[in-house]
Amino acid sequence: MALQKVVFVLSFLFAVQGKAQTDTANIKSYADQVMIRANLDTNIESFIFSEGKNRDENQQIFSINNKTKISLSVDYRIISATLSFAPRFFPDNRDNELKGNSSYTDFSFRFFPKRFIQTFYYKNVKGFYLENMQDFVPGWQEGKDPHIQFPDLRVQSFGGSTSYVLNKNFSARSIYTQGEWQKHSGGSWVPFLDYNLTIFSNIVDQQKSKEFQYKIGANMGYFYNWVIGRKVNIAPYLALGFGGNFSSYREYENGGSKENAQYFTMRMEGGLHVGYNTDRFLLGGKLNFSAYTYDQKKNQAVENNNAYGLLYIGYRFPPPKMVKETYDKIQKKIPIL
């Protein structure tokens, strides 16, 4: 936790003189506009526990039942805020008889002072099921037989990342939030730190257990923005990283014995963004994936995989007078804004 606080303070010290991006020869800024977006995406999050010399010999894949979520975003100046949730009216989110009930909430903030990108997020996921039942129960049939369910298994994450765009003529914001528009094709290396605290809690046979995981990683990514004409862009990216995972596990039985461990971690993520942009309307789609893994013991590994497709539509408009005046007052007290 102390390490997270240090990273938090440093990221703000680096950015304290940051101002909203103004138009340049290669970047058009919409910082003076309010932008609202609605996103529809398929959130497929799973945890994979593997054993054996070949990791696919004995795998347990734990997934959430919610497969479709909605995100609502608001951007103004250098701030971008997003709230995501999984409504039950989607058919894929209510297959509760076979897979159990899952809940999903995700809230994130992004700040874009100069070439820095600072992200903070909170994620709360509860209710998992064993996805690969056919590997454990002979004759088990998908869509007919129920999955083993873990309704009390809960994963909470508090975290963030601090990034720096090396190429001053590259707009990462045009890919992340569409708060800018890059006029000419180009790419950039983007080094970043990611850090989070994840809490796993569960109740099995009326016995509670809880595990705390502190993670920090150093990553390097490459982003490219291919601008097709004046309104369309295609932007792929790929990032690789390494870090550490510090775990503390406690089972609240027989006095609550406690175990601590440290692991070396590897991470890979990537994606593809296709967008259409005008000064008022914007729409597009994204395909993203992330894979995080570490060796828990000899011949044992844990992976957290997340893959999703996203569709978005948005609209920009001048800020209401009250919004602009309120922001200006806050900015006088908090220069980073």
Tell me what you see in this structure.
This protein has 337 residues and is mostly beta strands. 10% of the residues lie in helices and 60% in strands. Strands 2, 3, 4, 5, 6, 7, 8, 9, 11, 12, 13, 14, 15 and 16 form a 14-stranded antiparallel β-sheet that branches. A two-stranded antiparallel sheet has the order 1-10. It is globular, with a radius of gyration of 22 Å. The N terminus is likely disordered.
Secondary-structure topology with pairs:
Layout: H1 2-15, E1 27-29, E2 34-42, E3 44-51, E4 58-64, E5 68-76, E6 79-85, H2 96-99, E7 103-111, E8 116-130, E9 149-164, H3 173-176, E10 180-182, E11 186-204, E12 207-228, E13 232-251, E14 258-277, E15 281-297, E16 300-317, H4 321-333
Report the order of strands and helices.
Answer: HEEEEEEHEEEHEEEEEEEH
Largest beta sheet, briefly? 14 strands, antiparallel
Helix content class: 10-25%
Straight-line N-to-C gap = 25 Å
**How many strands in all?**
16
Gross morphology is globular
- Ranges where pLDDT stays below 50 over 5 or more residues in a row are 1-21
Estimated share of beta-strand residues: over 45%
Determine the structural class based on helices, strands and strand pairing.
mainly beta
The averaged pLDDT comes out at 84
Give the number of helices: 4
From the alpha carbons, calculate the radius of gyration and give it in angstroms: 22 Å
